[in-house]
Amino acid sequence: MGTTESSIVDAARGRPGLLLVAFLGGLLLVDLAAKLAGLSLGPIGGAISADRFGSNLWNGVVIGLVIGLAGIGLSMTYSILSFANFSHGDLLSTGAFTGWGVAFLIAGFGDIPVRSLLTVRDAGGATAGDIGAHILSTPVAILVGLLAAFAITAAVALALDRAFYKPMRDRDGISILIASIGAALIVRYAIQFVYGSDRRGVTASLDASNLAFAPLGLSVNAHELTIVVAALGLMLAMHFMLQRTKLGTAMRAMADNKDLALVTGIPAERVVTATWIIGGGLAGASGYLYVLLRGTIQFDFGWLLLLLIFAAVILGGIGSVYGAIAGGLVIGIVFTTSTIWIPSDFNEAAAFAVMITMLLLRPEGLFGGVSTA
Amino acid sequence: MSDDSARSSETEAPESATAALIDAARRSDLGLVLGTLLAVYLVAALLTFTDGLNSVVGLMRTLTFLGLVYALAALALNLQWGYAGLFNIGVAGFMALGVYTMGIVVRSPDPAFGPPGFGLPLPVGIVAGMLVAAVVGLLAALPALRLKADYLAIVTLGISEIIRLILQSSAFDNFLRETIGAGTGGGSGMGMPRNPVRDLFLVDGQAGTPTALGDLVFGTVGESGLGIANTILIDWAYIAVLAGFVIGFFVLLERLGRSPFGRTLKAIREDELVADSLGKNVDLIKIKVFVIGCALMGLAGILWFGSQGNVSPTPQFMPVLTFYVFIAVIIGGSGSNAGAVLGGIVFATVLFEGPRRVGASLRDVIDAETPPSFADALVTLDPTAFLAFATDNIAPLQFVFLGLILVFIMHRRPDGILGDRIETAAAVDLSERPSGGETDE
User: Where is B191: in which H helix or E strand?
Assistant: First the structure.
């Protein structure tokens, strides 16, 4: 006992920052408990209903899963290609616009001009209600849209790689990072040119789309449930791919030690291709799901999400797929529950602050910098 | 590089006077910058000469202003990135800090005119703005510099977004008003104090009451003389001030770069480990240069946005502003101060303003109605309608073009136009060995 205690004290002395963060985190937890219990002791406590806290937590999990799904691709490109891909956010937008175009085409075919459907209501005067895309009324359209988002974004990511990144394979990470900023500009503004710049509604609203979970005091939207199922399904598929297939083993080997992997005879370019297909596809799928969650779409929403995705990936330890998922959940929950303590103007800033704190105290991330394992 | 060309041109006589002029311009960085400006003016004059002298001078004013402010920001970034290899992509945030602090310090305490301030003189505000940018830079640098370059990039981007979101927040505005009695104005921003250059020409800055100098200038070339709008003339006077600051930044950075401190910086950029093992305090030097760079970014922000009447966080200080400045530095060549100035001018005129002006001119020529959307333009199957749509929506195409330029430069010319990554760190020229001396063999 004595030895463990003294080692804890020593560790705390060695890491004053960690101690401070742990203290602040503990304070927030005590405060939360006091708030939930309805107690109030000076500045601590207050009143917050368990319902509100529950719905905050649930919203955080939903957003977190979407961010985590997007983070997988970012983490993979970082660990296998060794650069921070700033065009990743715009791959989310690519998936969202193309995927919803396909979903609209199926949901509204016949009644509404095709150009209006494929451009996600940029052309023509159809409203989101006319098209009526909703998981309960047009489940096939939503599912096919998700698949299309995955496939088209994978193709776009691969094309970007062939055109921009492949000639730079042997360059340093910062040079490729700058090129990826260029690629981000190209993709984002090509989307604006084709799909227009205004924010618009996408999903139709349906009566009785909320399923109430009475015991938890939660009201869960059918779209939220779809997102959770789809995101978890994709993450599980990713897990089995990484652990059980030859490709997954090769990817983990490349991420772990590139030179060793090359010496062993792993076909590097084929692994890189697979990385872009899977990472890009997951980015597209998560962008599609994010629009399903928010119900609106805008050409630069993926770019605005990018920093949150980076925060998630860094939190989990950049390069680790499981870390990205865990980091996404943490960031999502911080994003929604921080409104208990601070004005909602700052919830995004709180997520970035968590990321920066993590980088300063434990740059290797929650999972200790394990690459893609 | 420049020495070589200088030597070769001394031996070969130039063919003509113009060739000699071009040769001289190529030899000196100043000549290159001025030559670029002249070329830009020529194109601007060609684009607008049909609309009269006022439009020509007005367009030149806009282009020069943008070129100079981008040059200022690019110089500040060049100190951090070009000299020390610190990949700071939070430029927009530090500029916002500078200009907002200046605004808060200088604005009138009377809340009747928007967010209240402290009502102190302008120079105090400028110094305070630089100080706040420097202090936040210090706080960011202390821990962040231990990180790898790409982590530093993400952290600085995060900081710049946190700054923007805080300035945007009305809760923070109220908090400031209650605690220190000054406000940021939240999302609607704040008006900037009057430009002192305006007071040189107008009594109390009021239009219609010119000073003696104002009378003289307005009477000769202004509205009562050659017919150039008085506001454009006042802007030109401010541009002269900006040019002074660009020269000041340039001289400061050049001196810094040639000092022992600057040589250590370049050594760190090229190989941190070697610099460290030679006994240089790498961390301290990095922190110093980061703080100086942030203070200069704050000053650049003040000179740029402080002169624009009103600042607000969201359209003006988005991360894309940082990338513009980066593109300017990359075009010029990171590590070269002359390159940063040139890159700023080329970016602002050719890449930023150019496509918009050319697109607008083209649109006037095309005789077709603009289709309401891309899909509508496509289904007409009419190239003219499509061209009308494209020229009317030139802004997104321009960004696509910028992205292509960025990728192209990274592929083909990673050192930019004037990049001098390879340079002598020694104070004496080592490439020229005295002939007849001892040899190693």
Answer: strand B190-191
* Identity of the residue numbered A326: A
Give the pLDDT confidence score for residue B25 in this predicted structure: 54
- Residue ranges of the domains in chain A? 1-48, 59-361
Give the sign of the dihedral formed by CA A293, CA A299, CA A302, CA A304.
negative
Q: CA distances (Å), A251 to each of A68, A233, B38, in order?
A: 19, 20, 54
Contact in structure between B54 and B228 (CB atoms under 8 Å): yes
A162 touches chain B (CB under 8 A): no
**Confidence at residue B174, expressed as pLDDT on a 0 to 100 scale:** 87
Residues B383 and B362: their CA atoms lie apart, in Å, by 14
CATH, range B31-412 = 1.10.3470
d(CA B202, CA B204) in angstroms, rounded, equals 6
Q: Which residues of chain B, if any, have pLDDT below 70?
A: 1-27, 144, 418-441
Asked if the model's pLDDT at residue A69 lies above 90, the reply is yes
Looking only at the bridges linking them, the beta strands covering B310-311 and A218-221 are: unpaired
For range A80-104, the mean pLDDT: 93
Chain A residues with CB under 8 Å of B149 CB are: 173-174
pLDDT tens, position by position, B205-227: 777 777 878 777 777 777 777 77
Enumerate the residues of chain A whose CB falls inside 8 A of the CB of residue B155: 355-356, 359
ipTM over 0.90: no
Beta bridge pairs of residue A220: A211
Is there a contact between A84 and B150 if contact means CB atoms under 8 Å apart? yes
> Which of A171, A174, A194 shows the shortest C-beta gap to B150?
A174
Q: What is the mean pLDDT of residues A196-215?
A: 74
Q: If we measure between CA atoms, which residue out of B344, B326, B274, B370 comes closest to residue B91?
A: B326
The reply to whether residue A179 touches residue B404, judged by beta carbons under 8 angstroms, is no
Which residues of B are less than 8 Å from A195 in CB distance? 374
Residue A48 touches chain B, beta carbons under 8 Å: no
What's the pLDDT at A9? 59
**Residues 6 or more apart whose Cβ sits within 8 Å of residue A181:** A86, A87, B323, B326, B403, B406
Q: Taking CA atoms, what residue in A is nearest to B143?
A: A360
Q: What is the pLDDT confidence band of residue A209, given thresholds at 50, 70 and 90?
A: low
**A358 touching chain B per CB within 8 A:** no
